[in-house]
Amino acid sequence: MTALHRRAALLAAGGLLARPALAQGWRPAQPVRCVIGAAAGGTLDIHARAAAPVLAERMGQPAVMENSGGAAGRIASALVGRAAPDGQTLLVASGDGIIISDILYGPTQGRLRSRLRPVTMTIIAAQLLVTHPRSGIRSVQDYLARARSSNGVTLGVPGYGGIAHLISEMVNRGLGDMRVTHVPYRGGGPATVDLLAGQIDAMIITLPAVTEHVRQGRLIPLAVSTLQRDAAMQDVPTIAESLLPGFDAPSTQGVLVPEATPEPIVEAWAQAWRAALRTEAVTRRLTDLGFVITATTPSEFGASLDTTEARFAEVISAAGIKAEDA
């Protein structure tokens, strides 16, 4: 069992111990708007849509998925933060993305997290540095050599100021003398399309978004961002073992609602999402792609966001990353 899986198991165990019977007092009165903080085709989209049929069955109303990419999820988070706190609007977002965005942009644009209430951390996954066969980059060493050459590297990231962009900045500053041009996208889906077409040299993306492309040889995986190798790609080295010892930056994703949403509604949605993610077919599909299902309680997700903020605030400060860099 990897460190990532042990972390997920501990979170999931806490959720099981704290879990009451499904609340019977609240159900949505009409179809539910589920805003996904990225364009179609990324991991937020994949795991939310996998859970949607079970959510509809549990809650008695369809969950209408709506992709809202841009600004590393900030647009979607702000939209849901302004919605009525009635349980009819949910946000599926990167927990890391919300925190990093607040650190970089909160002082001038306002904090997003204060407008949102955690429901459940749905999954944890590694970020993957990946390229395409025609790039000529087939290993971490090739990537490093290209990034230090006069040509440099064009690197796709799902939005400036997101976890992928931050990982790239951490690697670049840790190694030094790197010529990396970041190309922002509205989500992992559009970035993958351009990488497959050879429009960019490489990208950093949440691993499950490209598992099938890697397995079919359409993309070449170079390194994962977690401290230990990912169970779905055991042959792929970590950034820690190949570039920067001790490097560890997993990605978290979850569900949030407007901050003033009442407790019974939050708990009803938390239970519904946990049940959906632990349905056998959903679990099998997501774990095969490389997702680690956590399905936490609201308080556990909130605590994780606190820890993430403390960690990345220190990383961003130490690296000297400013809002204008993002």
TrEMBL record:
<feature type="signal peptide">
    <location>
        <begin position="1"/>
        <end position="23"/>
    </location>
</feature>
<dbReference type="InterPro" id="IPR042100">
    <property type="entry name" value="Bug_dom1"/>
</dbReference>
<comment type="similarity">
    <text>Belongs to the UPF0065 (bug) family.</text>
</comment>
<keyword id="KW-0732">Signal</keyword>
<dbReference type="InterPro" id="IPR005064">
    <property type="entry name" value="BUG"/>
</dbReference>
<dbReference type="Pfam" id="PF03401">
    <property type="entry name" value="TctC"/>
</dbReference>
<protein>
    <submittedName>
        <fullName>Tripartite tricarboxylate transporter substrate binding protein</fullName>
    </submittedName>
</protein>
